[in-house]
Structure formats: C-alpha cells, structure tokens
C-alpha cells in the first residue's frame, strides 16, 4: 500500500545503519523497516541530495505490518518505492508533532520506566515505541565519551510531570550538526555549553524512542532521543547531507 509519511525520526544505529519513523495522514506512527541488516544510510539520499530527512513528506510502498511490542509501528517496505514529495513548512511540522504529543515520558510508553543503568522499559510489552514531548525545562547537553570510548551526546531535561531524564541523543542530523562544530577543534565542554544555550532559547520538541534489546540486556528497551525539533529551526533549513559535507 502506497503511504505518504511525514518523517519525524531519523535515528543513527550501528554499522552505518539508520532507523526511520514518520506519521501518515491519519496521524498513525509508522516505522518503515527492512530485513537484516536493515536500512543503510546511503538509502536516505539520491543524486547526492537528501530524500528522507526530518519533516520531508516521503511516499513508501508498505508491504506488511510486523509489530513486535513495544515496537508496534514496524512496516516492511519496498526500497525501490521511495519517493520524495516535498518539505513541510513550520505550521505543518507543528501539526505533525502535536498529533503525537504526550504530557510526559511515562505517558508515551504506558508501562513502568525502570532505571539502572540508563532508563528502560521491558521488551515485549507496551503499545508504542516512540512519541513526542515538550520538555518543561532543558537542563544540559552533555558531550562525553561512553564505555566504548566513543564520543556521544546526551540531554538532561524535565518532562511535564517534572521527572528528570538524561538520554543519549541518537538523532542522526543532530549528531552531524555537532560533528560539524567539533571539526572546528573546539573544547567539548564549550560545545556542550553552546548547545545547551541553543536549546534553551528555542521552542523545543523531543522525540522519545526505544532501542531494541541487545546482547548485554536482551530484555530491555532503553529510552533514547530519536529527534530534536526546534522552532525556529536550529538547522536553518539544512539537512544531514549539508552537515556531513561540512564536518
């Protein structure tokens, strides 16, 4: 079935793979997926230009629904069917985000959020794996090395129930945006401080998603930040392709 999606999430995964999610005309969240090894990052481009990126309207031929709670949004698609249609304006962006808006992180997943290490929910349960919140307050952007010595970004924020979360940012575009600044040979603490000020000055929406279970914690789906959306747009109209070329 041909389905037009307003893309909301473009998530960086391991080994050059990505995860995509968006909303159809009825407001349903749909995650186009491919069998292992998944979607390669180069599939997001055509002729050197981005065709799948946040707030692009993109058509997919959905082949079958393959829900595995809490990842109930998965639909296998035909990769040859992908067609870029248009970019959304700010009014359309807000409309899409509002349709998936929840007051708190707990409301998104409708199951207990556990902690230690990280924040997670149990695999195999829950009605959805992604949703939108407007944080009550941005606390701080963290730019630091993880257990594998790789540098990554995390965001500390308070949700509508005044609960504090510190989540890893897996938003592909945000990571390219930050990498472009790192290329200027700036101090990581200064970059993090500048990013914190940027988000505090803007009207920020967060797309909260869930990872899949993995070898170390097969029964846990960890909370992560799939997308950071701001008004005005912190990207100033750029896509991940522009940022990749600039990094």
Distance between the termini: 38 Å
The total count of strands amounts to 17
Query: Radius of gyration, Cα only, in angstroms?
Result: 17 Å
Mean pLDDT: 93
| Poorly predicted runs of 5 or more residues | none
Q: What would the principal axes of the Cα set say about the shape?
A: globular
Question: What is the strand arrangement across the widest sheet?
Answer: 9-12-16-17-11-10
Q: How many H/I helical runs?
A: 5
Structural class: alpha+beta
| Order of secondary-structure elements | EEEEEEEEHEHEEEEEEHHEEH
User: Share of helix among residues?
Assistant: 10-25%
The major β-sheet equals:
6 strands, mixed
Strand content: 35-45%
Describe this structure in words.
There is one protein chain. This protein has 247 residues and is α+β, with helices and mostly antiparallel strands. The model has no long low-confidence stretch (mean pLDDT 93). The radius of gyration is 17 Å and the shape is globular. The chain is built from five helices and 17 strands. β2 and β3 form a beta hairpin. The strands form four sheets. A six-stranded mixed sheet has the order 9-12-16-17-11-10. A five-stranded mixed β-barrel has the order 1-2-3-8-7. The chain has helices spanning 90-99, 105-109, 172-182, 188-201, 240-246, and strands at residues 2-12, 17-23, 29-33, 39-40, 45-46, 49-50, 56-65, 74-87, 101-102, 114-115, 119-122, 130-133, 137-145, 151-158, 164-168, 203-210, 220-231.
């Amino acid at each position: 079935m041909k389905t037009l999606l307003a893309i909301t999430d473009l998530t960086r995964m391991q080994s050059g793979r990505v995860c995509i999610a968006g909303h159809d005309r009825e407001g349903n969240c749909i995650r186009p997926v491919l069998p292992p090894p998944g979607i390669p990052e180069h599939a997001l481009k055509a002729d050197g230009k981005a065709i799948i990126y946040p707030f692009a309207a993109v058509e997919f031929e959905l082949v079958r629904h393959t829900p595995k709670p809490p990842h109930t949004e998965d639909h296998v698609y035909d990769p040859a069917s992908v067609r870029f249609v248009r970019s959304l304006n700010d009014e359309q962006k807000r409309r899409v985000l509002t349709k998936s808006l929840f007051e708190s992180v707990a409301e998104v997943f409708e199951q207990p959020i556990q902690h230690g290490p990280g924040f997670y929910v149990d695999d195999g349960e829950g009605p959805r794996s992604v949703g939108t919140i407007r944080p009550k307050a941005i606390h701080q952007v963290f730019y630091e090395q993880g257990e594998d010595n790789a540098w990554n970004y995390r965001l500390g924020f308070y949700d509508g129930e005044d609960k504090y979360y510190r989540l890893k940012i897996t938003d592909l575009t945000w990571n390219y945006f930050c990498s472009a600044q790192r290329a200027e040979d700036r101090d990581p603490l200064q970059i993090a401080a500048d990013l914190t000020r940027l988000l505090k000055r803007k009207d920020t929406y967060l797309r909260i998603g869930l990872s899949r279970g993995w070898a170390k914690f097969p029964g846990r789906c960890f909370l992560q930040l799939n997308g950071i959306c701001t008004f005005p747009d912190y990207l100033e109209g750029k896509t991940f392709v522009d940022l990749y070329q600039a990094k």
